[in-house]
Write a structure and sequence with these properties.
Helix content is about 0%, strand content about 50%. With about 130 residues, the protein is an all-beta fold. The strands form 2 sheets. Strands 2, 4, 5, 6, 9, 10 and 11 form a 7-stranded mixed beta sheet that branches. It has a 4-stranded antiparallel beta sheet with strand order 1-3-8-7, with no helix packed on it. The radius of gyration is 14 Å and the shape is globular.
């Protein structure tokens, strides 16, 4: 089992920045990749960013490319999501996810069904 604990959400004005953290523990040696997803009220959960466990591969949703950066501290088994130039439409609950399933193809990093471990979520609210 892998446990994920997120932190760093909050309220910020449009144009501001936040950094989310996701600390992984347990059988982290089984993890192939980690990702961030978000879900706004009344909407489906959507992909935000993903990173290979070694940190060498990253993927971003078009809506956040150039504004968000995903990174990993290998010594701490912690993944970060630096969010800059936040917009009102970035408001959502952000979920950290990890997968212990082999990832076959780059498109799988973007799919929620690839991930079998999820954090509890952290609220990000951007005021207009």
């Amino acid at each position: 089992q892998v446990q994920l604990v997120e932190s760093g959400g909050g309220l910020v004005q449009a144009g501001g920045s936040l950094r989310l953290s996701c600390a992984a523990s347990g059988r982290t040696f089984t993890v192939y990749a980690m990702g961030w997803f978000r879900q706004a009220p009344g909407k489906e959960r959507e992909f935000v960013a993903a990173i290979g466990w070694s940190g060498g591969i990253t993927y971003y949703a078009d809506s956040v490319k150039g504004r968000f950066t995903i990174s990993k501290d290998n010594a701490k088994d912690t993944v970060y999501l630096q969010m800059n130039s936040l917009k009102f439409e970035d408001t959502a609950v952000y979920y950290c996810a990890a997968t212990s399933r082999p990832v076959y193809g780059s498109s799988r990093y973007l799919s929620a069904s690839q991930y079998n471990y999820w954090g509890q979520g952290t609220q990000v609210t951007v005021s207009a």
